[in-house]
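Entry type: protein chain
Record version: 2
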Amino acid sequence: MEKHMKNFDPNAAATKDSGIFGLPFSFEESELVLLPVPWDATTSYGGGACRGPAAIFKASKQIDLFDKELGNFFESGIFMLKISSEIQKMNEVAYVAARKIIENEFSSDSTLFSTVNDLSLKLNKYVYEETRELLNQGKKVGLIGGDHSVPFGSIQAHLEKYPNMSVLHIDAHADLRNAFEGFEYSHASIMYNAMTKTNLKKLVQVGVRDFCEEEWHFMKNNKNKIISFFDAEIAEKKLSGHIWSTLCDEILHDMGEEVYISFDIDGLDPRFCPHTGTPVPGGLEYHEVLYLFKKLIRSGRRVIGFDLNEVSLGSTQEASSHVLEPAQEWDANVGARLLYKLCGLILRDTHNKIT
């Protein structure tokens, strides 16, 4: 690492052959490893999240590395693994089967359902095993989706190492549906699965503004484990004179010392993510999220893992395209900047603490 840092100018433009954020580090040299998961088979509205990891990687090279609050945390090393062609192929098969089900108004063809659910299980196993192996090697791990179904295996693996961790879930949706559209591991079911299939003790949701009655009852029946800060209630408090700093204290109050962040980009106001799969009016401001992160760190809590999902260029735009429409590139730009902040939160113990 010292050799690479000696020859690396963090103020210069990123080179074509550099890694994520234009960094020069190898896997062995990096404290943080990013696992890309190109999967959006269960998408129920807009598609394209499977191309999120590639789009974020491309946009990441436009980011200035110095962070006034977190310092030069990148010096600890950040490395993004190669996007798996096997997962891409699995996603293509599962996506076609899922579309046939949805377009035929939830076809009763059991073979199609089995295809989607079996491949989803295979994906979960892949993410779990990859994450567990990285954690066993002493790496810190961040996951880049993909739709919001993909981090189930990551949450499982992190719980094995950090059994008392809390999940901070930023999202427009509660994601507490049971097998949405017949898909057991739907993007709309990630937190239901986390609460019913793992030993997760605390889930804190922020920005939720789209949920069904079934989810509402699930929240109420699990109020000792699930705390939801609904977007409408947050907005009402802000409009009534409450300050965001105080609301952040309320959000963090019941969280443990070790925090895993699960971030669906549609938790933001849609102007920051216009091409995400299921945008909903309202949502958090970009700087509100960053301030919440700052308050989390100031509170003495530690970020031990994260995932970032649902960054999309739209259903047809390829991330590898040399020419992107500015409106499409915007989603990846915002996603890359959020990813860099998340990297800083997890690496901050070895560099300047937040001010």
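Comment: Residues 110-136 form the longest helix (27 residues).
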